[in-house]
Amino acid sequence: MLEIYFKECLYFTANRLGRVLTKMAEDAFIVTGLSPTAAFLLMAVYEKDGISQKELGQYLHLQPSTVTRVIEKLVAKGLLYNRMDGRLSLIHVTEKGKALEEVIHQCWHQLRDRYSAIMGEGGDELSLRLYEVSNQLEEVE
């Protein structure tokens, strides 16, 4: 009976999936010396240099305190810098940070390739469906 509870519980199953994927992502991004979250934050800044912390939180679906903490770590590593524009904090990538861009994108592709090798095209389909479901559940809150 307990096994059925776990298999049919979205909370348990999603957390289990999260733990498995976190381990895979950590393995993929280890060569950068960054956490997967930090690497994805850098990817967002590569896409839009001068992005606000608020926008980063929205794109990455992270709490403001988490975004601040990750940015502080990346600033300390010399990969990002913060510039104030009035009351708005804008995040920019440094030359040192730009030097990591290709490696970070390679790590992202390695991660996708790894789970795609296991799941086939179902990995992309599952990802898109989970994104939709997450949006639906956030609207309920």
Automatic annotation (TrEMBL):
Gene3D superfamilies: Winged helix-like DNA-binding domain superfamily/Winged helix DNA-binding domain. Residues 7-141 form the HTH marR-type domain. The keyword DNA-binding applies. Pfam families: MarR_2 (PF12802). It comes from the Bacteria. SMART domains: HTH_MARR. Keywords: DNA-binding. GO terms for biological process: response to stress. GO terms for molecular function: DNA binding; DNA-binding transcription factor activity. This is MarR family transcriptional regulator. It comes from Paenibacillus piri.
